[in-house]
Amino acid sequence: MEYMLKVENLSKSFTIHNLGKHIKASQDININLKEGEFIGITGRSGSGKSTILKCIYRTYLPEKGNIWYNSKKFGNVNISAIDERRMVYLRKHEIGYVSQFLNVMPRTTAKEIVEQAVLEMGHTKEYAAEEAVKMLSHFELDYELWDSYPNTFSGGEKLRLNIARAMVKHPRLLLLDEPTASLDDASKEKVRVLIEQLKREGTTMIGIFHDIDFMTGLCDRKYNMQAGKFV
Fold first, then answer.
1. In the CATH scheme, what is the code of domain 36-59+88-230?
2. Tell me: the pLDDT tens digits for 195-224?
3. Distance CA 165, CA 175 (A)
4. Among 8, 39, 56, 192, which residue's beta carbon has the most beta carbons within 10 A?
5. Mean pLDDT value across residues 14-32
């Protein structure tokens, strides 16, 4: 099979009933992504970039179009139509998602969050603990924060933890939604190093970036979005 991910004529819109508005978020999107490729998407806020990633991760159900994904376990599946049980499996084992926002169970420490991601993949507790230490050290999250709850963290600290949790799994497909939005230059470089490592390992990636400089030399292809369409 030539592709890891094939998005065909994807469209998604939203109706805001109390305002009587119908917003076309993403229209007729087509992407063909080979294994190990990394494409970048740029565009203004509200142009529909995140909607594409959320449809691929199935947080949103597309209105029309197909999202074909070449799964290691299930073979070629249409994410637009796959049952929930298999989609949950794909999120746990094959498809990673990094957003600007950290959604975690309350009263779970930073280290436990990263360890849980590794345990979900079927690894031992010892291996999960080792990988969590490596990842938290890489992102230079203060050692005192490892056993703290993330609701006390700054925006940048939460984002670093979110990236660590997704990348520690070494997913087959990784969706990056503004992964450097609130990071300083040193932290951005840490993200870049890990993206380059994942690329070498063969991870397929789609990333949304406002920071054009960050994309230089990373992306195999770039798309720009305006008003819900690639231009």
1. 3.40.50.300
2. 888 898 899 999 998 777 877 888 999 988
3. 13
4. 56
5. 83
